[in-house]
Design brief:
By secondary structure, the protein is mostly helical. The protein has 14 helices and no strands. The chain has a domain of 52 residues. The termini are far apart.
Length: 281
C-alpha cells in the first residue's frame, strides 16, 4: 500500500521540480533580457555620441526594422541622420515619430531643427507653432530666434536669443549667432559686444573671432583686439581685417594688414599673397 503513495509523492515532486525549473528559466530569460537592454542602451549612447555617423545610421536602421515598435530606436535613427548630414532623410523619420502616440514636444522641436537645416524656414516655423508655449527649452528658443531673424523681425529675434542664452550653460554659439544677426543689420557696435561675450564662454571659437574682426572693421577699428589667439589664427584674422579694409575703400590700410598676415603666418599664407599681388603690393 505504501508504494502507490510513494509513487504519487514522487510524481508530485517531479511536477513541482519541473514547475520550479520553468520559473527559473523564465526568470533567467527576463534577467538576460534586462542585461541585453542595458547593453543595447549603452551601445545606442555610444553610436549617438562618438560612433561613426554612417555606422550609427546603419545600426539604428537595422535595429528599427527588427524592433518596429521601439520609438527610442527611431529617435536614434533620426539623430544619427542629422549627425551624418542627412537632414532631409531625418525629417521623414521625425514625422513618423510625431505621428505616433509616443511623439513629444521635444520630437517636434527636433523636426523643426531638421527642417531648418534644409533651409525650409516656412516648415520650421509651422512645426514650432505646434509646440505648446509652455515647452520652454534652449533648443526651442534658439530655433525661434533664427526663424525671427529670417523674417527680419529683430525685436522677436533679440528676445528669443536672450531667452535661449539664459537656458544653457554654454551660450557661446547663441551669442555668436546673435552677433551675426546684429552684423547683418549693420549694428557693428552691438555685434562686437556679442562676439566678445561669446568668446568669454568659449575662447577657442574661431567663428566668433573672425566675426569680431568684421564687426570692428565695420567701425574702422583695424587694430587686433585683446583675445586669445594662436599664431595661425592671428594671420587669418589679419587677412580678414585686410580684406574688410579694402572693401571699405581703405586700400593702403588693407595692404598693410595683408602684409602682416603674410609675415605673421608660420607657413606660406597663399591667400594673402594673392590678395597683395592683386593690390600691387
Amino acid at each position: 500500500m505504501r508504494h502507490p503513495v510513494l509513487l504519487k509523492l514522487c510524481l508530485v515532486g517531479a511536477v513541482a521540480l519541473t514547475g520550479c525549473q520553468g520559473t527559473r528559466d523564465a526568470a533567467s530569460k527576463r534577467a538576460l533580457k534586462s542585461v541585453n537592454v542595458v547593453d543595447e542602451s549603452n551601445l545606442s549612447d555610444i553610436m549617438l555620441t562618438v560612433g561613426d555617423p554612417d555606422e550609427a545610421v546603419a545600426y539604428f536602421q537595422k535595429s528599427s526594422v527588427e524592433n518596429p515598435d521601439r520609438i527610442d530606436l527611431k529617435r536614434g535613427l533620426a539623430k544619427s541622420l542629422i549627425r551624418a548630414n542627412k537632414p532631409s532623410e531625418a525629417i521623414g523619420v521625425w514625422k513618423t515619430i510625431i505621428a505616433s502616440p509616443e511623439g513629444t514636444s521635444e520630437d517636434r522641436v527636433s523636426l523643426a531643427d531638421a527642417q531648418m537645416r534644409t533651409s525650409d524656414w516656412a516648415g520650421t516655423e509651422a512645426t514650432l507653432n505646434t509646440v505648446p508655449p509652455t515647452f520652454e527649452t534652449f533648443e526651442r528658443y534658439r530655433l525661434e530666434a533664427m526663424v525671427a531673424d529670417s523674417k527680419k523681425d529683430w525685436k522677436k529675434a533679440d528676445s528669443f536669443y536672450d531667452i535661449a542664452a539664459g537656458l544653457t550653460t554654454k551660450p557661446s554659439g547663441v551669442y555668436n549667432n546673435w552677433g551675426f544677426s546684429k552684423l547683418s543689420r549693420g549694428d557693428n557696435a552691438g555685434a562686437e559686444k556679442l562676439f566678445l561675450e561669446a568668446l568669454t564662454y568659449d575662447p577657442s571659437l574661431f567663428t566668433a573671432k573672425n566675426n569680431l574682426i568684421l564687426a570692428r572693421a565695420g567701425q574702422r577699428k583695424y587694430d587686433m583686439p585683446v583675445i586669445e589667439i594662436t599664431q595661425t589664427e592671428r594671420a587669418q584674422l589679419y587677412y580678414t581685417m585686410g580684406l574688410a579694409a579694402v572693401k571699405q575703400g581703405d586700400t593702403s590700410v588693407g595692404r598693410e594688414l595683408l602684409q602682416q598676415a603674410v609675415d605673421t603666418s608660420p607657413t606660406y599664407f597663399e591667400a594673402a599673397e594673392r590678395s597683395l599681388k592683386a593690390l600691387g603690393g
